[in-house]
Amino acid sequence: MGQHVSTLQNQLSALQHSKWSLQSPNYRPANLLCPPTSLKEHEGPEEDLGAVLRPMISSFASNIGYTSSPPEPSAELWIAMRAFADQLGVNYDEGTHSWKCFRVGISYAAVCLPKHPLEVQVYVGTYSWLGLLLDDETAKSPDDFSRFVQCFALGERQPTPLLEGWAELMRLSFKYWDPVVANFIVSSSMNFVNANVLETRDEFKKLEPTRGGKSWPWFLRDKDGVAEAYAWFTFPKIPYDDMSNYLEMIPDLSSYIALTNDILSFYKEEKNGDKDNYVHSRGWLQMITYWVM
Q1: Closest CA to 214 of 292, 290, 288, 285
Q2: I need a labelling partner for 168 at 20 to 30 A (CA). Which of 20, 176, 187, 240 fits?
Q3: What gap in Å lies between CA 225 and CA 192, rounded to an integer?
Q4: What is the pLDDT of residue 287?
Q5: Residue at 52 is within a domain
Q6: Contact between residue 282 and residue 218 where contact means Cβ atoms under 8 Å apart
Q7: Is the pLDDT of residue 15 over 90?
Q8: Can you give the pTM of this predicted structure?
Q9: At what angle do helices 161-176 and 179-198 cross, to 10 degrees?
Q10: Are the beta carbons of 59 and 14 closer than 8 angstroms?
Q11: Could you give the number of structural domains in the chain?
């Protein structure tokens, strides 16, 4: 796992050096949420982004060595996950955004955890569905989301079905994972909500990058990507009843999940003009180091 993560980090570094190199030592990034309007402001001869990324992603996919056709969700999984979703009371009518997120969640469970027990697949599929919704909905009602951890700690009901469903998943994690592992899943899930709330705050939006903040992009990425929880999902207590067999791989697996997501999402986000991501944040802070030195 460590080699794969190192490879991804090297690819990120190469991409940042080629696309964000400074033309002038007087360049100053305004703040973490106000990047240059285009990569072309700081690059050399115009180069198609797809042409730059394609060989890196092709090499990455080839090195993984995954050749099997991705499995489709079974009828059994569809029935079980829809039944659980109905219990939670979160709307997922066909054709809605929630329905699209539901389909992503069930596909993730089928493709990534094909040999896991059905109940675990339902859990992870539902977690993925609700997590996507949480990521989208936080900015619409930040006050409700900011109280999530407090309500959970006090044993109070959450203000919306979505947040109550997330809380129910936290409680249910102890059924399928070792108590210590479940604790990590819960803490990662809470960090995810809190990081999303943080990103809505004015204090965050006006944050200006400094040379001393070079660790900040990864700190935030580690929290808002909930990758640690997904790393732990790999090892439910049945059949993985001995944590000593997998504990050491969790940090690399967590980083691998987060960075892979960033690599595979980068082209889409760049074309959509989305600069609020780890690649850009890390790149801007690297630029500060260049002009300060």
Answers
A1: 285
A2: 240
A3: 7
A4: 60
A5: no
A6: yes
A7: no
A8: 0.79
A9: 160
A10: no
A11: 1
The answer to whether residues 85 and 123 touch, using CB atoms and an 8 Å cutoff, is: no
Distance between CA atoms of 60 and 17, rounded to whole angstroms? Answer: 19
168: in domain = yes
Asked if residue 147 lies in contact with residue 159, where contact means CB atoms within 8 angstroms, the answer is: yes
Give strand ranges (E) for the chain. none
CATH number, domain containing residue 84 = 1.10.600.10
- With respect to residue 226, please indicate whether it lies within any of the assigned structural domains: yes
Question: pLDDT tens across 49-90, in order?
Answer: 888 888 888 888 888 887 777 789 999 999 999 999 999 999
Question: For residues 31 and 206, is the Cβ–Cβ distance under 8 A?
Answer: yes
Q: Assess contact for 30 and 208: CB atoms under 8 A.
A: yes
On whether residue 7 sits in a domain, the answer given is: no
Domain that holds residue 217: 71-292
Q: What is the pLDDT of residues 104-135, one digit of tens each?
A: 999 999 999 999 999 999 999 999 999 999 99
Angle between helix axes 118-137 and 97-112 (nearest 10 degrees) is: 140
DSSP 233-261: HT--TTT---GGGTGGGHHHHHHHHHHHH
